[in-house]
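Title: Prediction job returns without error message
Component: structure pipeline
Severity: low
Priority: P3
Assignee: unassigned

Description:
Job completed but the reporter wants confirmation the result is attached to the right record. Sequence as submitted:
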Amino acid sequence: MGGAVSAGEDNDELIDNLKEAQYIRTELVEQAFRAIDRADYYLEEFKENAYKDLAWKHGNIHLSAPCIYSEVMEALDLQPGLSFLNLGSGTGYLSSMVGLILGPFGVNHGVELHSDVIEYAKQKLDFFIRTSDSFDKFDFCEPSFVTGNCLEISPDCSQYDRVYCGAGVQKEHEEYMKSLLKVGGILVMPLEEKLTKITRTGPSAWETKKILAVSFAPLIQPCHSESGKSRLVQLPPLAVRSLQDLARIAIRGTIKKVIRQETVSSSGNGLKNTPRAKRRRVRRRRMETIVFLDKEVFASRISSPSDDNSCEDLEEEREEDRAPPESKPALPVNFLREKVLSLPLPDPLKYYLLYYREK
């Protein structure tokens, strides 16, 4: 099995390689990928493979290859405040990255067929919220997951600005998928062995673009009950935030602005990670390199004239990324947390502002 880009030593190096190969092309998508460590969504015994550009499957748990998620995130053209529906939400890895871009006033829903995968996703989401500094660097739209077959969504559910389906869609279900989309919205799904982007330009008008040649396992057909009726999936209701929660969001946003103002004259931004000092190894391959997504599933990028025809490995050392041998990178600092804890407020209010998160 081969990947479209070289494996990384850690999450940041994997993202470097995806950028080098032009899978990640925008700053918003890059920030989201760097903010969530892919290895956190692996079982402990499989984490050594987390930074390879390969899919991973264990039982019902599945993660697509990083290059596939990169293309999906870029195609969705996410913006703060949008609504997003993830069909086949799996581990919640993609939904959590999307939530970092949508912000606190977006909508982030997922439908997953397997209840054990829903529990796994909730555990990973809870771990991210409690322990990751990225939760404080971004305004997060927390995903909500429901169990069910995504082909049985109740017809009275709301439409969404962005929809992604992580399984192969048969031609007969194309119109159903389109019906989930608002006018002006974007749908990304594997359709007829191509990762396809469909934009709804009007009530009955659509623009279609083929992104990537793929072969996904098909959607599982609904199982009808004994009465012959399907089990309709009810998506989460659109939540209305309390005044107390809105105040917390506003206070955290104001503190972040103060931090940025205080650090504007320094060499780095208080909400960014400390620059890394490392040697980067980038493998450039033809873009039609096979990427296996499952035991019987693979994807290959559509080649273009700009593709590099060389398969040789290149060692790259950038002077700006290297520090003197005697120096060590400083540990990242959670400036928001430090600022909140220094405020002259009662401790319960401080921890409320921090979402009662662990250090």
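Comment from assignee: result matches the submitted record. The first helix runs from residue 11 to 20.
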